Structures are given as structure tokens and as C-alpha cells.
Amino acid sequence: GNRKLFFDQYASLLLLYFFTPSLDSLRALQEATGWEKTRKKLGIESTSLGSLSEAARIFDASHLEPIIHELAAQAVPLSKGREAEALKGLTAVDGSVFSGMSRMAWALWNKPDCRAAKLHLHFDVLKGVPCQAAVTPAACSEPGQLEAMLQPDRLYVVDRGYADYELFARIVGAGSSLVARVKDSTAFTVKEERPLDAAAKAAGVVRDVILSRLGTSHHKDHLKREMRLVIVRTIDRDGKATELWLITDRLDLDADLVALAYRYRWTVELFFRWLKCILGARHLISQSRNGVTLQMYAALIVSLLIVLRTGRKPTKRTYETIHFYLIGWVTDEEFEAHLRKLEERSSKKTG
Q: Could you report the per-residue pLDDT of 116-141, keeping only the tens digit for each?
């Protein structure tokens, strides 16, 4: 009828939402469409609250996926050298829960009155950007979702929640590799003990072995190939020692790099913190699964745009500077000066 709202316009409004902290609800976003300058810059008309609510259900979120992939492909590695070359394609995988409203029936979680969505994220560690994502109800199998999202030429690093021999076989079968933490009670058959060099010992590696079989002879051998177990000993803040049992199919990697690859898994946790605490994505402005997916994809696009513009991982200070730049309170010269400071700080850390 009298509604005229297109997908690109709705996506632009979602980007405006994340770049403007004062817009903290769907109603606030709708009010912003009544501002003349906003309408001119975004190429939209004044939009009703009903139109925005309906758009979240009608516009197919999957159309934003190619944009995420394209932007992620444009990003360049933020680090170079031995580690970057050896760990090419390193992808940290994890999921994070976003609490929702009780009316979100599709997002039933662990209690009848508890609703939540889960963002399954693949994070390109060396580029510092998200490269793939999916939104599901919180009560969803993370290993199953990873299997559905597998890509070739990746080095997936995952925690114990993804420890599944059949999943490991699927990763290898997809043309990728893995570094996965498993329980320290995991059964295995040793084929060869590898000596530890100084770099491995410095990284906390206490054992490096080639396995002829992962698991017991009573279970199906899904992998049907040699695997490798690298045991890393870490010390927490309280002085307590913990052993990390890391399984990988990469027999060519130095042991210290296997340990480093798992250490990099925390980058996806830090990115979730950025999404929730700085970008504000934990506040859901839609109740439908498609609407939540649209919001999450827009948040990832914002993060990618910041990395592509600054050449650095997004920080709170840079995010604030961008806010003031967009409203005209920071000049081009001041913004470029801010970026130079970031580059100088990065050079000092790596120098």
C-alpha cells in the first residue's frame, strides 16, 4: 500500500543504528527517518514503525552474506612473518548467546520462559575480521553448525565443545585442517614421539607425538589417518598448572606454532566482547530469527568496514572517533592523525 521501504534502505538504517549510539531501539531508528538530512544521506523516505518491524521478517538476511564474504576477502593480514605464513587461513570458531525476549518462541533455550539466539562465528585470526556467521536458537549443536559451515583451505581452531572425531574427519575431508582441544582422558595409540626443540619448550610444550590412531580400538576410526597430539602446560594467575591436549592433522607445523594457534582461539572471544559491550549488538531490536540475523550481519559489516578503513582491529577509542567524525565534530585531518597514532603504536609493539 502506502509503504515504500527497500532492502538496501533497511540495511542502511541498521548500519546507522550501530554507528549512532544514541539510537538504542527500533522506535528511535524509526524517529531518525523523520529527519530531513538523514533521509537525504541514506536515500530513504520517512518510515513507519510497522514497516521496520515487518521488514525484519520479510527481507531475506542471507542476501547480506555475500557482502560479509566480499569485505572479509578485501581485508589483509595484520601480521606478517613466520607465524602468519605457517598459520595461513587460521580460523577461530565459537558461538555466543544473545538473550532475547520471552515472545521469541523460535529461540527456546533451557527453560520455558528463557529465550536466546546464538551467533556462530568464524573469525579470520590473522586478518582480525569475521568471515562467516550463522544465527540459530541457543539450544543448537555447535559441532553440527560448524560442519554445516565448513570451507576449504582453513585451519580451524576450536575448544573442547567441538571435540568430535567424526567432525574432525569432515573438516579434513572438506580440504581444511584443525587444531582442537580434547579431554586429557582421550585414548590414543602412539606411533612416534617427537623431540622438543627450544622454541617448543619455551611455548610450554611438554609432549609432541604422532598418533597411529585416535580413540580406542572399540570405536570406529573416523579419521583413518595419522594425527598428532601436542600437550601444552600452562600456568594460571593462581599458579595452578593445566595441560592442554591439542589434536591436529598438521604434521608439518612446529610444535610451538600449534600451541600458538590454540592461543589465538581467544581472538574470537574478544570479538564477541566487542560486539556485545562496545558495538551494542547484545540489545536485540527484532523478535524474529530473520530479524536477529539481519542485525547480527549488519554488526559484522560495521566491524569489517572499520577494519578496512583503519587497517587495525576495532577499538573503543577508534569507534568513538568514528562517531564524532560522522557527525562532523572530527575533521578529516584529525581522523587521519588518529589513524597515524594507531599505526605508530602498532609499530612500537612489533619493533
A: 999 999 999 999 999 999 999 999 99
> Residue 145 contacts by C-beta under 8 Å, 6 or more apart in sequence?
95, 120, 134, 136
Query: Residues 186, 110, 296, 326: what is their CA dihedral angle, to the nearest 10 degrees?
Result: -110
Would you call 227 exposed, middle or buried from its count of C-beta atoms within 10 A (0-12, 13-18, 19+)?
Answer: buried
Closest CA to 12 of 45, 36, 42, 57: 42
Angstrom distances, CA of residue 95 to CA of 120, 168, 192, 243 = 4, 18, 35, 23
As a whole number of angstroms, the distance between CA 258 and CA 224 comes to 21
What one-letter code names the amino acid at 204?
G
- For residue 154, CA distances in Å to 157, 189, 239, 295 come to 9, 27, 35, 26
| Order of all β-strands in the sheet with 227-235 | 129-137, 116-124, 90-99, 155-158, 177-182, 241-248, 227-235, 205-214, 188-193
For residues 38 and 19, is the Cβ–Cβ distance under 8 A?
no
Q: Is the pLDDT of residue 222 over 90?
A: no
Tell me the pLDDT tens digit for each residue of 246-279: 999 999 999 999 999 999 999 999 999 999 999 9
Q: Quick count: other Cβ atoms within 10 Å of Cβ 7?
A: 15
